[in-house]
Design a protein that fits this description.
Radius of gyration: 18 Å
Order of helices and strands: HHEEEHHEEEHEHHEHH
Number of helices: 9
Structural class: alpha/beta
CATH topology: Rossmann fold
Number of domains: 1
CATH class: Alpha Beta
Helix content: 25-40%
Length: 204
């Protein structure tokens, strides 16, 4: 049931999964074999590859909608909790290093290069946001060193293959569950702005 006071259009939109998720194209933690999902006209003259974790999936719906209007297909390579950057991370759910991610990433990169899309779009959860989600459960990762090196290691084979790449910065990350906070505020007849967070804090 929609929260009291929430506009119907917002409630309806929030209840809808992304286009890629609705199609079952976000792989589970345990899966290592890539699943390339095609959206739009499979015979379209142009193609875009969307590569990354669930934060890359944030862009699947608008990207697919825009591509379809321009006779372009979108092919997704998406996996839960698995950043496109070549960097082993800790999986809180698995309580160990996320080796399945490393295997999936390597295979996906090879598949994307073989597919030769006109553009590769990469997005992923920022390392500082990942640290917030798994505080105290993993060794600290340096944004400046390991983060840049991991992204560079992923971008290099695409560049060597002559593929164009666009990297979308991660969305701001709140310390709280914003959806729960807003729903609670609306239910109580309070202003959703109570859930606001400073831009600088959200990007830390």
């Amino acid at each position: 049931m929609a929260a009291r006071g929430a506009p119907a259009c917002i409630a309806a939109s929030a209840a809808q999964p992304s286009t890629a998720r609705a199609a079952g194209c976000i792989l589970s933690f345990e899966t290592v074999t890539p699943k390339a999902c095609v959206f739009g006209n499979k015979d379209a003259p142009r193609s875009i590859a969307l590569f990354g974790d669930s934060h890359a999936d944030h862009w699947s719906t608008p990207l697919i909608e825009a591509a379809e209007k321009n006779d372009t297909k979108v092919v997704t390579w998406l996996k839960s909790g698995c950043r496109a950057s070549r960097l082993t991370v800790w999986a809180t759910k698995l309580k160990r290093n996320y080796t399945e991610c490393d295997q999936w990433r390597a295979q996906s990169i090879r598949q994307i290069i073989a597919a030769r899309p006109n553009l590769v779009v990469i997005s992923e959860i920022a390392l500082d946001s990942l640290d917030k989600m798994s505080a105290g459960t993993q060794a600290p990762v340096s944004q400046d060193a390991d983060g840049r090196a991991g992204l560079h290691a992923t971008l290099t084979p695409f560049s060597q293959a002559g593929l164009k790449v666009a990297v979308i910065r991660d969305v701001p990350f709140s310390d709280d569950h914003v959806d729960t906070c807003v729903a609670r505020a609306l239910w109580r007849g309070e202003r959703p702005s109570l859930c606001d967070q400073k831009r600088a804090d959200a990007r830390q």
